[in-house]
Amino acid sequence: MTRPDDSEFMAFAETLADLSRAMLIAAARHKPDIEIKADASFVTTTDKAVESALRERILATYPDHGILGEEFPSVNTVAEFVWVLDPIDGTAPFIAGIPVYGTLISLAWNGAPWLGVIDHPVTSDRWTGVAHESAHHNGVPVRVRDCAALERALITCSNADFMASEARTQFDIIRRRAQYVQYGGSCFAYAVMASGRTDMAIDGGMDPFDVYAPAAVILGAGGYFCDWQGQPLSFAMDGYVLAAGDKARLDEALAVLGGA
């Protein structure tokens, strides 16, 4: 199947990121209004306002496209092109004023991550990527790095508490072998992996809007992104994801995590 041209869509995705960045910078000057969702996670009025603005612009420009977002019901997710949105990935850091939060914007093609934007408003960092083609940080090409052994790997994990007990046991096997595990980086952790600063990311409790944009960027940077059984991401994913820059280390981790 011939891949569609990505240039128009990427340019549009960056206009969406410009919009979300302006809104988040303005909102960061004030103490946020906080709500607790049914899953006990945080949401703010800014999360909802940003996603509403992005949805409005998408539907005005591409009315036949679908949308899958964090804060509002999905629209036409069986469409060939579906925009996958997380207005604030890292709402808890946003509330706390810790600048690792960002906006995730992805365009899925036939259900798979295709192009993605990871935008960090406070630090003015933006990663963009087209799966299996290219990735950039602030316009400069980036590439994942090789890793000689799991014992030398720098791994990131958003929060191991999101994992079920059996999955946590499997993760702990890898954690004990790895050189170091860095927690709590939100989408920034995936972005720096695309730039070759870390070796692996292991997470549970994720939704498509948490990982589709990072997946497109990491795949574009020459890396790998799958679930714990080694299968590609889909809208029906179970929430357990693994990303790596080195195929040998990916396979080594899958041999442990696949039993969870």
TrEMBL record:
Needed cofactors: Mg(2+)
Coiled coil: none
InterPro entries documented for this protein: Inositol_monophosphatase-like
GO molecular function, one term: metal ion binding
Highest taxon listed in the record's lineage: Bacteria
Pfam families listed in its UniProt record: Inositol_P
Keywords: Magnesium, Metal-binding
One GO biological process term: signal transduction
Chain residues that bind Mg(2+): 70, 86, 88-89, 210
UniProt cross-references to SUPFAM superfamilies, sorted A to Z: Carbohydrate phosphatase
Protein family: Belongs to the inositol monophosphatase superfamily.
Protein name: Inositol monophosphatase family protein
